[in-house]
């Protein structure tokens, strides 16, 4: 029998990091032929992230002119991906997460009648519109996927009303961390009396006035003589230049270019405290036992908050300063958060995902099998034999 063809369509740095373990695992399986298609949503960060795993995109589509209005970008993405998928005629289209690339790829697959596998399915912020557009994107993709790979049992429980098959797999971001960990740089020796804070901030809901407020709070934190803040700047023009203009002159704030994935993981490992609005960092920080204050009012990753690794603090300046101060000044509060844990899986998500896909291929009656009723309950990790 010919190998089954899987095409992953991805466009941004976090998608590259989270699809890489699947691409690597697929290579080890003779029954599968995996192809990685880049949409061009974040070209530079995307290529660097993949290169860290020794892989590159098989096809590049350059479909998303960054300056075009979102509706035009989405239309261009969907049309271009559909034309490409039509040529490739895969047996399954994989999309990761909640970006516009993922949504456009899912729509393109639906338009061609191709089945979709959704990696990182079932994340919900509790608000249908926030974060925008990620929350509406992930809900739409979940609604049309044949296979839904939920990182946690809680994510699977959020999928009770979808038509596809749900498997609990862990998050491939933890696989990526497991793969990268042995090659991380040796930690620099700590400087006595100096606490290292790592900060990332790029989410849409933290831009504009709110970003000004967050910068003001970071300045106040940096005014303490016992801290040093490092901020890798996101290239988004609504973020990097604004932060640089407000914080670039502070002697205890170091603004740096985006870090490659390994350097970022090392920075997470070596930080005493992280402040961030990133999704992926909420998954990675617990693995290193580094406390994380999440600069958002809600999260689609409540597992890390429930386990005590992260704390949701929103974006009001006074609260940011107070919460950081509490962890810096209260050793008991700090120790309660500074414990390693793996609320998003043990780093074997790609294996589980590809096991489930191979079982599904084995069970699928036709190449373009359509959606079906769930054959699994939340918490199960595989479709039952013969499903
Ligand atoms: C809040 C939210 O909805 N976030 C979504 C967003 O990602 P997310 O908010 O995670 O996006 P980020 O740009 O923060 O990327 C995080 C990843 O990039 C790495 N990193 C970060 C900074 C840096 O300088 N260098 C670097 O390598 C981090 O270690 C992490 O692995 O898209 C992801 C992919 O669809 C989804 O999983 C997330 O749900």
How would you characterize the overall build of this protein?
The strands form 2 sheets. The protein has a 7-stranded parallel β-sheet with strand order 3-2-1-4-5-6-7, with helices on both faces. Helix content is 42%, strand content 15%. It is globular. The chain has 2 domains: 4-170 and 348-363, Rossmann fold (3-Layer(aba) Sandwich); 190-337, Glycogen Phosphorylase B (Rossmann fold, 3-Layer(aba) Sandwich). With 387 residues, it is α/β, with parallel strands linked by helices. The structure holds uridine-diphosphate-N-acetylglucosamine. Uridine-diphosphate-N-acetylglucosamine (UD1) is lined by residues 13-15, 17, 96-99, 120, 131, 134, 173, 200, 203, 232, 258-259, 261, 264, 278-281, 284.
The residue-averaged pLDDT reads: 92
What's the tally of helices? 15
Bound molecules: uridine-diphosphate-N-acetylglucosamine
Range of strand content:
15-25%
What would CATH call the architecture of the largest domain?
A: 3-Layer(aba) Sandwich
Quick one: how many beta strands?
A: 13
Task: Please name the CATH topology of the largest domain.
Answer: Rossmann fold
State the name of the first-level CATH class of the largest domain: Alpha Beta
Count of all domains? 2
- Note the overall shape: globular
Strands of the biggest beta sheet: in what spatial order? 3-2-1-4-5-6-7
> Roughly how many Å is the radius of gyration?
21 Å
Q: Structural class from helices and strands?
A: alpha/beta
Order of helices and strands: EHEHEHEHEHEHEHEHEHEHEHEHEHHH
Largest sheet: 7 strands, parallel
Region (Disordered): 368-387
Catalytic activity: UDP-N-acetyl-alpha-D-glucosamine = UDP-N-acetyl-alpha-D-mannosamine
GO molecular function, one term: UDP-N-acetylglucosamine 2-epimerase activity
Enzyme class: isomerase
């Amino acid at each position: 029998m010919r190998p089954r063809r899987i095409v992953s369509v991805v466009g941004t740095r976090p998608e590259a990091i989270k699809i890489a373990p699947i691409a690597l695992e697929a290579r080890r399986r003779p029954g599968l032929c995996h192809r990685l298609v880049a949409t061009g949503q974040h070209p530079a960060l995307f290529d660097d992230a993949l290169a860290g795993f020794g892989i590159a995109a098989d096809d590049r589509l350059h479909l998303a002119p960054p300056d075009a209005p979102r509706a035009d970008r989405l239309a261009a993405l969907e049309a271009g991906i559909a034309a490409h998928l039509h040529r490739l005629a895969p047996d399954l289209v994989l999309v990761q997460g909640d970006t516009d690339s993922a949504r456009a790829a899912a729509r393109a697959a639906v338009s061609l009648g191709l089945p979709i596998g959704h990696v990182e399915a079932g994340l919900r912020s509790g608000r249908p519109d926030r974060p925008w557009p990620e929350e509406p994107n992930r809900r739409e993709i979940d609604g049309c996927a044949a296979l839904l790979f939920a990182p946690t049992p809680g994510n699977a429980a959020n999928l009770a009303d979808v038509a596809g098959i749900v498997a609990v797999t862990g998050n491939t971001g933890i696989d990526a961390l497991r793969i990268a960990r042995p090659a991380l740089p040796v930690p620099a020796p700590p400087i006595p009396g100096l606490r290292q804070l790592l900060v990332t901030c790029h989410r849409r809901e933290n831009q504009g006035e709110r970003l000004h407020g967050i910068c003001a709070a970071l300045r106040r934190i940096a005014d303490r003589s016992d801290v040093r803040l490092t901020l890798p700047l996101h290239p988004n023009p609504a973020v990097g230049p604004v932060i640089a203009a407000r914080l670039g002159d502070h002697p205890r704030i170091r603004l740096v270019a985006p870090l490659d994935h390994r350097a970022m993981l090392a920075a997470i490992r070596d930080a005493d405290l992280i402040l961030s609005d990133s999704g992926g960092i909420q998954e990675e920080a617990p693995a290193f036992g580094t406390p994380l204050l999440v600069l958002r009012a809600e999260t689609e990753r409540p597992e890390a908050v429930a386990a005590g690794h992260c704390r949701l603090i929103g974006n009001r300046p006074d609260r940011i300063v107070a919460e950081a101060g509490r962890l810096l000044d209260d050793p008991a509060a700090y120790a309660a958060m500074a414990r390693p844990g793996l609320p998003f899986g043990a780093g074997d998500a790609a294996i589980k995902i590809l096991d489930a896909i191979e079982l599904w291929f084995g069970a699928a009656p036709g190449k373009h099998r359509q959606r079906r009723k769930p054959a699994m309950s939340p918490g199960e990790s595989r479709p039952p034999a013969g499903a």
